[in-house]
Amino acid sequence: MSLPAEIWHLLLKDLRLEWRQRTALAGLLLYVGGTVYVSYLSFTLRGGLPPAPAWNALFWIILLFAALGAAGRGLGQEPAGLRLYYYTVARPEAVILAKITYNALLLLALAGPGLLLYTLLLGNPVQSWGLFAANVAVGAISLASSLTLVSAIAARAGQSGGGTLLAVLGLPVLIPVLLIVVKVSKNALDGLPWDVSQGPMLTLVALNFIVGAVSYVLFPFLWRT
């Protein structure tokens, strides 16, 4: 079987498992919704909506922790029997690329409703919605792809330490991504033209390809340990 076919079948397997265990996805959506609602209560008690810089920072904080929660449900929570089954039917490159794709789709599914609820409750200071939406989509993919390999590394520490390692190793890796997405979001809030954000957006896309390439090269060595 070719590599794209293996990736497709592994992705379908993850999507079917997610559909059967809908409570896990509902829990992540509940976390995002609950965090947004608590933020709304905090600002309305002070008699107003957050200023644009605080609105921008708070949104990405919520999405960051949603990404950490989604990535923590990946390779680290799969039983040993399933990983042994992977060894016999799939290549490691297909496994990691399918996981990156699945985590990216999952975080996009969280970012969309989360952004809608966020704007409904906390206002909408965005002046360039096209740029902001594109930045959220590419940023969500960047967060998911960066955390997938980190999650695989953390899983090797065992169930007791994997979650802690994911946060410790993941946050430094995500700093470049967060710096770029916050900057582009600020440009969208200010209504600046697309040309101003073209360089950072291309850098973000390049980071996605770099992370994918590094995962493709390094994961087989992690797979054998």
TrEMBL record:
The chain crosses the membrane at residues 23-43, 55-75, 96-120, 132-155, 162-182, 202-223. InterPro entries: Cyt_c_biogenesis_CcmB (IPR003544). It is a multi-pass membrane protein. It comes from the Bacteria. It is found in: Membrane. Keywords: Membrane, Transmembrane, Transmembrane helix. Belongs to the CcmB/CycW/HelB family. This is Heme exporter protein CcmB. It comes from Hymenobacter bucti.
